[in-house]
C-alpha cells in the first residue's frame, strides 16, 4: 500500500471531503480572524490562502499529514545533499547554488560549495568582461547581443527571468532565446543580428539534446559563413553543461565552458551558470540579488514552523484541492506584465516533477499527483478564458500574483490593473446569487419576464478557490524568493505523494522514437513496424513533400 494512504491523517481527511464541498468558502469568513490566520508575510510577499475550502480542522489534518509524510526529515535530507533523487542516484541541490550563508554542503562526504563559488566567480569575471567590452568578438568589435540556445530547463528559467526583470536591465546587451527545433525561430533571431557582435550561450546539461545541438550547429554555420575562420568560435561561443567532453567535441574551448553538476535538475537550474544570460543582461549584482532572494526563501522554508510556512501552505492548498477534491488543474495568473512567462516556467517545474504515477518503490499510486499547470497574464485572460473560470462546471483553483508597486510605473495604469486583480478573486469566491441578479436587473428597469429568463445565465455560483500572492514589487530579490517558493511547494507535494520529483523518465520514449523515425523521413523508406496510423501519416508526409518539392 502506498505511503500516503497509510497515514492516519489521510483517512481523517477523506471524511472532510463532503463537508468541504458543501460549505461555501465565503461562509468560513464568519471567523473574524480567518484572514490573519491564513495569510502571512515572507520576504516581500504577502501570501493569502484564506479563500480555499479549508477550515481549521482540515488545516490541522493537512499539517498532520505532511508531518506523517516526513517532510521535516526529507527537507533536511535535501538541504544536506543526501541522495534523494533515488532513480538517478543523485543529490538535489539547487538550494546549494544560492547558499549565501557560508556553510558547507556535503555530497557523498565532499563539500560542493567551493566548486559552486568558483563557478560563480568565473561567471562574474566573464559577465563583467563582456559587459565592459573587454571580451570582444573575433574581429575586435564589442558584443551587443547574447543568444541563449537551450530548451526546457536550459531555456525557460533564463527566458522567464530576463523578461521579468527587464525594468532592471540597462542597455548594455540585448538577449535572445532560441529553443525550438523549428528553424523558423533561429532564422528569425539571426536575421536581426550582426555576427561580429553576437555571443552564443549553448546551454545544455547533457549536451545531447537534439534541439539544442541542431540550433547550435546552425548558429556555428551562420557565424562561419561570415567569418570563414574557425577561431571565431572561441570568441562567439560559450557553453553551460555538465558534459564537458561533448562540448569540447562540438568545438568550444574548455575555458569557455561553464560547469553545472548532476545534482542540479534542469528545471531547477537557473541559479547555476544556466543563469548566465540573466547575469549578462542584468549585471552580476542583480543576479546575486536573485540568488539572495531564493536563499532567504530557503531559510524560511527550513526554519519557519510548518504552521506558518509559505511553501507548506502552497503545497497543502494544492494537495487538498487536487488529490482530495479532484480539481486537477491549477491556473497561474500574474497581474505583472513582466511575469508573462511565469506560468510556462512553472508548467515545466511542476508537471515534469510531479507528473508521476508510481511511488518511490515503483508501486502504482491510487491518487492523482501533479496538477495541470497553465495560465497567462491575468488581465489578458479576463478577456479570454475567465468565463470558464467563473461559470463552467469545472473548478480551477488559481494563484493570483500581483504587485503593490509596478516595476515600471505609468500614470493611471496600476490602480486600474489591481482593481481587476482584487475584483476577480472576490468574484470567484463570492459569485452572485439569483436574488442579487434579480435585484440588479430590477434596479435597471428590466421587465420581470426578461429578468427571469436571464437569471440562470447571469448567476455565478462562486466558491472557486484562489491563493493571492501580493509582492511589494517585482525586483530581483523578490522574484528569487517567488521562484524558490514554488520550487519548495513542488518538493513538498512530491514528498506527500511519495513520488520521485527529480527524474523525468516520461520524456524519454518520444525522444527515442523520434531518433528512429528521422532516418525513415530522410530516406523516404517508411518501415512496416509502426502502428497503422503512424505509418500512413509518415507515408503521406514523405509523398506529399516529394510532390510539393517537385512543384517547386
Ligand atoms: O539541458 P538539457 O540536457 O539540454 O535538457 C533540456 C531539457 O530536456 C529534457 O528532455 C528534459 O525534459 C528537461 O528536463 C531538460 O531541461
What's the quick description here?
The chain is of the alpha/beta class and 552 residues long.
Q: What is the chains' assembly state?
A: single chain
Q: In percent, how much strand structure appears in the residues? A: 5-15%
CATH topology of the largest domain: Rossmann fold
What small molecules does the structure contain? 6-O-phosphono-alpha-D-glucopyranose
What is the count of distinct domains? 3
CATH architecture of the largest domain: 3-Layer(aba) Sandwich
| Number of E-type strands | 13
Task: Specify the number of helices.
Answer: 25
Low-confidence stretches: none
Q: Gap between N and C termini, in Å?
A: 62 Å
- Structural shape: globular
Superfamily (CATH H level) name of the largest domain: Glucose-6-phosphate isomerase like protein, domain 1
Give, in spatial order, the strands making up the sheet with the most strands: 1-2-13-12-10-11
Major sheet attributes: 6 strands, mixed
The Rg value, from CA coordinates, equals 26 Å
Main structural class = alpha/beta
Mean pLDDT: 97
Helix content bin? 40-55%
Name the CATH class of the largest domain: Alpha Beta
Task: Identify the notable features of this structure and list them briefly.
552 residues, alpha/beta, Rossmann fold, Phosphoglucose isomerase, C-terminal domain, 3 domains, five-stranded parallel beta sheet, 13 strands, 11% strand, binds 6-O-phosphono-alpha-D-glucopyranose
Write up this protein.
The protein is α/β, with parallel strands linked by helices and about 550 residues long. The chain has helices at about 5, 10-15, 15-20, 35, 55-70, 70-80, 95, 115-130, 155-165, 185-190, 210-225, 230-235, 245-250, 275-280, 285-305, 310-325, 340-355, 380, 385-390, 415-430, 435-445, 450-460, 475-495, 510-525, 530-550; strands at about 40, 45-50, 105, 110, 145-150, 175-180, 200-205, 235-240, 255-260, 330-335, 370-375, 400-405, 465-470. It has a six-stranded mixed sheet, sandwiched between helices. Strands 6-5-7-8-9 form a five-stranded parallel sheet, sandwiched between helices. Strands 3-4 form a two-stranded antiparallel ribbon. The chain binds 6-O-phosphono-alpha-D-glucopyranose (G6P). The site of 6-O-phosphono-alpha-D-glucopyranose (G6P) has 14 residues, from loops. Belongs to the GPI family. Keywords: Cytoplasm, Gluconeogenesis, Glycolysis, Isomerase.
Amino acid at each position: 500500500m502506498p505511503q500516503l494512504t497509510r497515514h492516519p491523517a489521510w483517512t481523517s481527511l477523506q471524511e472532510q471531503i463532503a463537508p468541504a464541498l458543501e460549505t461555501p468558502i465565503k461562509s468560513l469568513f464568519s471567523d473574524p480572524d480567518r484572514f490573519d490566520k491564513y495569510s502571512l508575510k515572507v520576504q516581500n510577499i504577502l501570501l493569502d490562502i484564506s479563500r480555499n475550502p479549508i477550515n481549521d480542522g482540515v488545516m490541522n489534518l493537512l499539517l498532520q499529514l505532511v508531518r506523517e509524510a516526513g517532510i521535516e526529515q526529507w527537507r533536511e535530507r535535501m538541504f544536506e545533499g543526501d541522495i534523494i533523487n533515488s532513480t538517478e542516484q543523485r543529490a538535489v541541490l539547487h538550494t546549494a547554488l544560492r547558499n549565501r550563508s557560508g556553510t558547507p554542503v556535503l555530497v557523498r562526504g565532499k563539500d560542493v560549495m567551493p566548486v559552486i563559488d568558483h563557478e560563480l566567480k568565473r561567471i562574474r569575471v566573464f559577465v563583467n568582461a563582456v559587459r565592459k567590452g573587454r571580451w570582444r568578438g573575433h574581429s575586435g568589435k564589442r558584443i551587443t547581443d547574447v543568444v541563449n540556445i537551450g530548451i526546457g530547463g536550459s531555456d525557460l528559467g533564463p527566458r522567464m527571468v530576463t523578461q521579468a526583470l527587464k525594468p532592471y536591465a540597462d542597455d548594455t546587451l540585448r538577449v535572445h532565446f532560441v529553443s525550438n527545433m523549428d528553424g523558423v525561430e533561429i532564422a528569425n533571431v539571426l536575421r536581426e543580428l550582426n555576427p561580429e557582435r553576437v555571443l552564443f550561450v549553448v546551454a545544455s546539461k547533457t549536451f545531447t539534446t537534439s534541439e539544442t545541438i541542431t540550433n547550435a550547429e546552425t548558429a556555428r554555420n551562420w557565424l562561419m559563413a561570415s567569418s570563414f575562420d574557425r577561431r571565431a568560435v572561441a570568441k562567439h561561443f560559450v557553453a553551460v553543461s555538465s558534459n564537458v567532453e561533448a562540448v569540447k567535441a562540438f568545438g568550444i574551448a574548455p575555458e569557455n565552458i561553464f560547469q553545472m553538476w548532476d545534482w542540479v535538475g534542469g528545471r531547477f537550474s537557473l541559479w547555476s551558470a544556466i543563469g548566465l544570460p540573466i547575469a549578462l543582461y542584468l549585471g552580476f549584482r542583480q543576479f546575486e540579488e536573485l540568488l539572495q532572494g531564493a536563499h532567504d526563501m530557503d531559510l524560511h522554508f527550513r526554519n519557519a514552523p510548518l504552521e506558518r510556512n509559505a511553501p507548506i501552505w502552497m503545497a497543502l492548498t494544492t494537495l487538498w484541492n487536487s488529490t482530495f477534491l479532484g480539481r486537477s488543474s491549477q491556473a497561474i495568473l500574474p497581474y505583472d506584465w513582466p511575469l508573462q512567462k511565469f506560468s510556462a516556467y512553472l508548467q515545466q517545474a511542476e508537471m515534469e516533477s510531479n507528473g508521476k504515477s508510481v511511488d518511490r518503490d515503483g508501486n502504482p499510486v491510487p491518487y492523482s499527483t501533479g496538477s495541470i499547470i497553465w495560465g497567462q497574464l491575468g488581465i489578458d485572460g479576463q478577456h479570454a478564458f475567465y468565463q470558464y473560470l467563473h461559470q463552467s462546471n469545472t473548478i480551477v483553483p488559481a494563484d493570483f500574483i500581483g504587485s503593490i508597486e509596478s516595476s515600471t510605473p505609468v500614470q493611471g495604469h496600476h490602480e486600474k490593473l489591481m482593481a481587476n486583480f482584487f475584483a476577480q478573486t472576490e468574484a470567484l469566491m463570492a459569485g452572485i446569487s439569483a436574488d442579487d441578479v434579480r435585484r440588479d436587473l430590477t434596479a435597471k428597469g428590466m421587465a420581470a419576464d426578461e429578468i427571469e429568463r436571464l437569471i440562470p445565465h447571469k448567476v455565478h455560483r462562486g466558491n472557486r478557490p484562489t491563493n493571492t500572492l501580493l509582492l511589494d514589487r517585482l525586483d530581483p530579490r523578490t522574484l528569487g524568493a517567488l521562484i524558490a517558493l514554488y520550487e519548495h511547494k513542488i518538493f513538498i507535494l512530491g514528498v506527500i505523494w511519495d513520488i520521485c520529483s527529480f527524474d523525468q523518465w516520461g520524456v524519454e520514449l518520444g525522444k527515442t522514437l523520434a531518433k528512429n523515425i528521422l532516418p525513415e523521413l530522410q530516406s523516404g523508406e517508411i518501415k512496416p513496424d509502426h502502428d497503422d496510423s503512424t505509418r500512413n501519416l509518415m507515408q503521406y508526409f514523405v509523398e506529399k513533400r516529394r510532390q510539393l518539392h517537385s512543384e517547386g
